[in-house]
Automatic annotation (TrEMBL):
Matching SUPFAM superfamilies: Clavaminate synthase-like
Family the entry assigns: Belongs to the alkB family.
Residues in coiled coil: none
GO MF term (any one): oxidative RNA demethylase activity
Lineage: Eukaryota, Viridiplantae, Streptophyta, Embryophyta, Tracheophyta
Protein name from the UniProt record: Fe2OG dioxygenase domain-containing protein
Keywords: Dioxygenase, Iron, Metal-binding, Oxidoreductase
Originating species: Colocasia esculenta
Cofactor needs: Fe(2+)
GO biological process per UniProt: oxidative RNA demethylation
């Protein structure tokens, strides 16, 4: 905000100039960041320059460039003030931050300007959930000792799957359900889809506030601003990629495993599908949380009336770092229960748990299995996929 003051206060700036010794360099205007590994596209550059010349008439600009200016200005203004701690998924309560905590590292992103005709032109930045290949450390063959250690770890992980839990009616946690090869496959697919059209972006609202995560939707796009599922993403005019068949298969298997667990808990005459109905996913929201990512308490209630009324479950896959997941009957964080979601875990909430308030309180950095990170180059953080049926 050092940059910002002189522009907001032209009178002050003039006075300073009048009283300073002539040799003192006067910071008349801020400069764009000095270290840039990619040239800024022309429109973004124009927008940046326009922001610096706030007081100049903007009528020469087309509306889509004006919108970029507004977005940039919003980040400068609000980045300083801080934001209310939470907003909803329908704007009021999703945890949001401004700034680039979740943005790709410098030099690892590509900036694209969306089509102004389709979307009103907010620039989107493609995000790669994996580090570039060149960052991959040279891998030596593991020693026998290391191999044994890894095998032991895997055996211990397998035991964890016996810790499956029925957290409450309709809410099942399957520990370490996704096997290593499935995890590698999911991360690979999400990476490929995520850097393509309709891939990861940092979603936000018209006032410039952003969610503190990167998001990609499969099947249809979910828009935080409108709370609607749509064919075309409003911010850049792209279509959501399809849900890979392999993902659907894993969802089906997870629901079957949950039914078995419900049966175990409730006895043989209990109709398991009444507690946890079946679901055929046609929507998936993929979130990537970096170390400081979070998501405020909210309900998932933008699916169709029939889907919600029938309590068709949300199936959630967790990969990478561990998260503290909150859930409860109200939006009050202090009254919420907390459960750790670790790499490979699948959480299912349907039936009478379909409308729980839930969110992600924090990510535990460095908790992802080393082997998975080495193999996939997944960035530090957590990948979450939530499948739903519209
Ligand atoms: O990341 C998670 O575990 C939860 C994601 C979520 O609540 C959502 O996408 O609606």
């Amino acid at each position: 905000m050092l940059l910002y003051l002189p522009l907001r206060s032209p009178v002050l700036a003039t006075r300073c100039r009048a009283f300073r010794a002539p040799t003192t360099p006067i910071p008349l205007r801020p400069r764009p960041p000095a270290r840039r590994s990619l040239p800024l596209p022309r429109q973004v550059k124009m927008a940046w320059e326009d922001m610096l010349h706030d007081h100049h008439p903007r009528s020469r600009q087309p509306p889509h460039v004006r919108q970029v200016v507004q977005t940039l200005k919003a980040s400068v203004h609000q980045g300083d003030k801080g934001l209310p701690p939470s907003f909803s998924k329908n704007k009021e309560h999703l945890q949001v931050v401004l700034g680039t905590g979740d943005s790709p590292a410098r030099g690892e992103c590509s900036t694209k300007i969306g089509s102004p005709d389709l979307c009103g032109s907010v620039p989107s930045v493609s995000f790669d959930i994996c580090l570039p290949q060149k960052a991959r450390p040279i891998k030596l063959n593991p020693s026998l000792l290391q191999q044994n250690r890894e095998k032991r770890k895997e055996r211990e992980q397998a035991k964890i799957s016996n810790q499956n839990m029925r957290l409450q009616p309709g809410m099942i946690l399957l520990k370490n359900f996704l096997k290593h090869n499935d995890q590698v496959e999911i991360i690979g697919q999400c990476q490929r889809l995520g850097v393509g059209s309709g891939g990861f972006y940092q979603p936000g609202y018209e006032d410039g506030a952003k969610l503190s995560l990167q998001m990609m939707c499969l099947g249809k796009n979910w828009d935080p601003q409108t709370s609607l599922y749509e064919d075309i993403r409003r911010v850049d005019g792209t279509k959501a990629p399809q849900i890979p068949l392999h993902f659907k298969k894993l969802v089906e298997e997870a629901i079957q495993a949950s039914h078995a667990l419900v049966q175990q808990h409730t006895g043989s005459s209990h109709p398991v599908k009444a507690e946890l109905p079946n679901m055929l996913p046609d929507l998936c929201i993929v979130n990537f949380y970096s170390n400081n990512g979070k998501l405020g308490l909210h309900q998932d209630k933008d699916e169709s009336r029939e889907s919600l009324d029938q309590g068709l479950p949300v199936v959630s896959f967790s990969l990478g770092d561990t998260a503290d997941f909150l859930y409860g009957d109200s939006r009050d964080v202090n009254k919420a229960n907390s459960v750790r979601l670790e790499n490979g875990d699948v959480l299912i909430f349907g039936g009478q748990s379909r409308h729980i308030f839930h969110g992600v309180l924090r990510i535990h950095p460095g908790t992802a299995p080393k082997r998975l990170v080495e193999e996939t180059l997944l960035r530090p953080g957590r990948l979450n996929l939530t499948f739903r049926q519209f």
